[in-house]
Design goal:
Blueprint: E1 21-23, E2 31-35, H1 39-49, E3 54-58, H2 61-70, E4 75-78, E5 81-82, E6 85-86, H3 89-97, E7 102-107, E8 119-122, H4 128-139
Parallel strand pairs: 2-3, 2-4, 4-7, 7-8
Antiparallel strand pairs: 1-3, 5-6
Helix pairs in contact: 2-3
Protein name: Response regulator
Keywords: Phosphoprotein
Domain Response regulatory: 31-138
Length: 150
């Protein structure tokens, strides 16, 4: 796992944290931005997708907007229910800055967002296998799960 923030100034996955934390062991892996205020979901997604992808998690709309202005991602996994705004507002910015990025929308409460991205999964995900299959299809990487869930 990598964390670009000094440990003395950054505490990952805390409520007051608005910055990004990244996970990867392969620099050439496709980059995934996970925008979700649910820190447990962020850990699950990172555990499932690393090392085949580089996962960066941000918990707020503002942090996602700032990151998208600086960095490129192959996939954005987006929960529209964010503490500082509607995650759907991020889609227009994403298309302006990174038109080729795919978007996996997932939500427990917003059925109107089902068609807003490249794909949709209900939250919580039905299974790790379903999440992996959807992400691997969107990124065009192998469909076999790297590690079977326990």
């Amino acid at each position: 796992m990598t964390n670009d923030h000094p440990s003395s100034t950054y505490r990952p996955f805390t409520e007051e944290s608005g910055g990004a934390i990244g996970f990867s062991i392969f620099a050439s892996a496709p980059r995934v931005l996970h925008v979700d205020s649910d820190h447990d979901a962020a850990l699950v997604l990172a555990a499932l997708l690393v090392p085949e992808t580089q996962v960066t998690h941000v918990p707020t709309l503002a942090a996602a907007q700032e990151l998208l202005h600086r960095e490129k991602f192959a996939l954005v996994v987006l929960d529209p229910d964010l503490p500082d705004g509607d995650g759907v507002d991020l889609l227009a910015e994403l298309r302006a800055y990174q038109a080729d990025a795919r978007v996996l929308m997932y939500s427990a409460r917003h059925p109107e967002h089902h068609n807003a991205g490249s794909a949709f999964l209900p939250k919580p995900w039905t299974s790790p296998r379903q999440l992996w299959r959807t992400v691997s299809d969107l990124l065009g990487i192998g469909s076999a799960m790297p590690v079977e869930p326990q």
